[in-house]
Amino acid sequence: MKTKTLLTTCALSASLLSTPQGHAKELIHDADHYVLKAQHAEQWAKDDKAVDSKLAEFKKSNNGKPPNIFYILIDDMGYGDMGIPELNSIRGYSTANVNKFSDQAMRLNRMYTEPSCTPTRCAFMTGRQPYRYGMGDTAVDISGFGLPAKEVTLAEVLSEAGYATTHIGKWHMGDIKEAWPNHQGFDYAAFPIHQQGQLTIFNDDASKEGVAVSIGPGQYKETFTKDKWFRPDGSAMAVGVEGKKGENVREVGMKPGERWTEAKYDELNQRYQDQAVEHLRKLAKQDKPFFLQYWPIIPLSAPRHTTEIYNTPNGGTYTEKMELLDRWIGDLMKEMDDLGVADNTIVIIMGDNGHFTKYSPQSGYTPMIFKGGKGYTTEGGVRVDAFVRWPGMIAADSIVADIFNVSDFYTTLARLAGAMDKLPTDRLIDGVDQSALLLEGETKGRRDTVYIYSGNKMEAIVKEHLKLKVPEPGENAILASFYDLQRDTREENPVSTEIGAWGGAEFTRIIQRHMMRKKKYPDEPAAFGKPYEGIDNLRPETKAAVEAFLIKSKVHEQ
Amino acid sequence: MKTKTLLTTCALSASLLSTPQGHAKELIHDADHYVLKAQHAEQWAKDDKAVDSKLAEFKKSNNGKPPNIFYILIDDMGYGDMGIPELNSIRGYSTANVNKFSDQAMRLNRMYTEPSCTPTRCAFMTGRQPYRYGMGDTAVDISGFGLPAKEVTLAEVLSEAGYATTHIGKWHMGDIKEAWPNHQGFDYAAFPIHQQGQLTIFNDDASKEGVAVSIGPGQYKETFTKDKWFRPDGSAMAVGVEGKKGENVREVGMKPGERWTEAKYDELNQRYQDQAVEHLRKLAKQDKPFFLQYWPIIPLSAPRHTTEIYNTPNGGTYTEKMELLDRWIGDLMKEMDDLGVADNTIVIIMGDNGHFTKYSPQSGYTPMIFKGGKGYTTEGGVRVDAFVRWPGMIAADSIVADIFNVSDFYTTLARLAGAMDKLPTDRLIDGVDQSALLLEGETKGRRDTVYIYSGNKMEAIVKEHLKLKVPEPGENAILASFYDLQRDTREENPVSTEIGAWGGAEFTRIIQRHMMRKKKYPDEPAAFGKPYEGIDNLRPETKAAVEAFLIKSKVHEQ
């Protein structure tokens, strides 16, 4: 009852606040945003004025145009893997170019992502946590679901605001047409339909090395294999596709009957790097501002024990590829300088979630600072390196400890691009506007709470530096584990009695408020459809794989 | 047999090498030094020439004098606690002054100490690992043993070479006269006889807070307490003493009957800081080069749950004191600038071992990068932050990944001070000369092996980035745990089969070589004696405590 009243009060005072930038309707946020807003509205309004004035000045100096946006999202890189030379040195490799970039950028030192690839990428694109539209889980093979068309992506928002938009590299939000970047707001997209699970494990080289178990050559004998559709054939699945906005895509680099190999994986990665350079050049020449996404697939590679290159003292299969990627990033940054777009472009480099600890230590990585990695809701799964550069606008070589959620980029970039009026106001948006943090600095963040989900299940709540591991159903709440994340970064020393005694009830109310918001704005399912529809040149084996998938999907109807 | 031959060969080729700096006799080192020397003698000779030439140039520019040395050793600070702003930010405090210092210094990124206070401090002072002279263990209360007079300390070496030498702060190498700094080479010393165990736990405030259990007011009732000597009384033990070389010391700050309190602990710390400043000024004015040691007792403090100051977001009792210490270090660095000695002084700032995890998380610290803390032989116990500054001579803002042992400073500082001929050549010296690393940079280190002991027991061997946890007696060597420290910084993913298959035999030979050296240069016991002899103004209660100790020490003779 008390909670309900509180929410009503918040909603009331929210409606009393002036709308920033003449935005027609208020964005709808999650509960705890209003708790902060009720306390800080006046200061936020002041900060907003300062932000608006800086943005106006920038626009004036940039021929009336908002900044370009270049977003580099790196796969499975945990906190501390890039940008801290001391930690590079401990591990025996160097991300020299990202380190240099970090000196020019603001480090968002408490960047929270989702605990795995698909959810993080969805949260960035939609500004909404993925459980709200059934995208909390990741699929590796043919699956027939994906990001719903009715989600309004940042690419759509920026397109509408006049940006040229391009996506290069990993996408991983489904194998159905409506989920794909060229149907989700990008003018052009080059991307693999699936992700490195298929690309690095479902191939014959990986089978021969024993990385893939029980699939591929040398891994099983057909004598007792009745169900020929049981094992995926990576070579039969669709691989890299490319296409323009609203049009069908075409698969590249694979002929009918051709096998997918590690060499082809390397080629595909090189292709994306080359395309990132090519499109950067193309976009820089256009009159429109641009939004370029480059989501490399490496450093992830087959988790082999050996590597053909051995340039780093570490020599892990991922660290070797990380150095390659770092050189590629260096090339891109140099290209920006050469093109003269370094100063009017916001560049973001970040990881999408922690390491995949399954491949430790031969990958070269293990969780170092935080506990756990990809797939875990401990900090090691959801805290990543994140840097934002905007020369003259965002303080170079700065570090901010304010909490940031990857979904906040959706709202914040829309604000910085002058596209707030293009954001949807008919649904709950998790991403809050963090422009003041970026432009005005530490303590100006507008978030103190993160709801950490695994799939559709809330597993932890972070508020300030306190973290509650949400008790399992039936677990006695008195035993719920609270952690002090500053004093115990690895969540190993619960202070449950000390914090629980006062925080237990308050955290319960945080959960209640959040759940009540979910009742008002209910979760919906992902989009479902026929895999690969919208690829013009499907190979016969790919068609067969889809047919098999469809039959398997319908056997319950027999 | 093979091993013996190898050693003979090494010894032979060693004798063929030219003696650096006209040193009369070669230093005697542990086995693996000669394995490296046999492979790198030629390069080392070249590097030595470069080093000698740089040192000669420096001396010329410094009025014919070698550099001053200022050594700040911080208690229980694990790797990453100082000098990396990103990690400061994660934990919610700032070591702004050490961070600034780190930008001016070389970070020894693989500094290995011993796993606790006494052994590390002994290793630094003597250049020899502490098991060689019975100082592998730590004592907190009255114990009647300490560092033997016949050890040749760096203070004695530098004194003989014409340095003025001063020690301020923690010493912790025994409560017998011969062990004390003013009898071990220092012209002047101000130090507590014991350490923070007594100073922060054996006091009435700690008892009242429940930090000390079963001693002090409110912690026990005498009804069934027959042995009045069972519990230590911190207030009766000797506290801070001060004195000149070879003379008796005097206890300061305690009157007979007075109780030791937390306030008095704070006073003592402030006193040491003031004395560090005072002696820095005094030494800077002298014509002699100086060797000043400042070994603060804070950040260690009573592991209370509350703190009277709350300046940091973290608020842990140790992090608060760490910020205080950081300000003090800032004051000292500024003082050096003001005195004009910043340029001709080598300044070293480092920790002595990992955190004491017993007090996590209320201390504000837990192991973050490596596994374990103080007392453990995992990297978290023995890897620390370490910075060396020497403007114009040592590359500023550099990071080197070469292995360094705290004992190496003994030999290295003697070399940099032009005092190699004062080092003893009648005993095994663990510390190798790392001058080339400091002056010529990364990869020039002369160590690839560390023998990690706990007390008198060898627990682990590090060679390159590989670490063997030495099997327990009777444990099957096939199960011995090997770790790849670059790919698995936290020693959680043993690669025993992968490395053991080739490294097992080689590591066995490393241990054999080391043990054969120990047979040639056998371990000896610590020095034993009457506690506190050599303190002029012992309080009556202190005398009584010593009497009780002596009776207890001799009951076996009844």
Structure in words:
The structure is a homodimer of 558-residue chains. Chain A is α/β, with parallel strands linked by helices and 558 residues long. Helices cover 35% and strands 15% of the residues of chain A. In chain A, the strands form three sheets. In chain A, strands 7-6-5-4-8-1-9-10-2-11 form a ten-stranded mixed beta sheet, sandwiched between helices. A four-stranded antiparallel beta sheet of chain A has the order 12-13-14-15, with helices on one face. In chain A, strand 13 and strand 14 form a beta hairpin. The radius of gyration of chain A is 23 Å and the shape is globular. The interface between A and B is large, with 42 and 42 residues. Chains A, B: Keywords: Calcium, Hydrolase, Metal-binding, Signal. Chains A, B: This is Sulfatase-like hydrolase/transferase.
Q: What oligomeric state best describes the polypeptide chains here? A: homodimer
Structural class of chain A, by secondary structure, is alpha/beta
Helical residues, percent of chain A: 25-40%
- Number of separate structural domains of chain A: 2
Residue-averaged pLDDT of chain A: 93
The CATH superfamily of the largest domain in chain A is: Alkaline Phosphatase, subunit A
Give the number of DSSP strands of chain A.
16
Distance between the termini of chain A: 49 Å
| Strand composition percent of chain A | 5-15%
The global form of chain A is globular
- CATH architecture term of the largest domain in chain A: 3-Layer(aba) Sandwich
CATH hierarchy, class of the largest domain in chain A: Alpha Beta
Strand order within the widest beta sheet of chain A: 7-6-5-4-8-1-9-10-2-11
Domain Sulfatase N-terminal (chains A, B): 67-419
Signal peptide (chains A, B): 1-24
Keywords (chains A, B): Calcium, Hydrolase, Metal-binding, Signal
Protein name (chains A, B): Sulfatase-like hydrolase/transferase
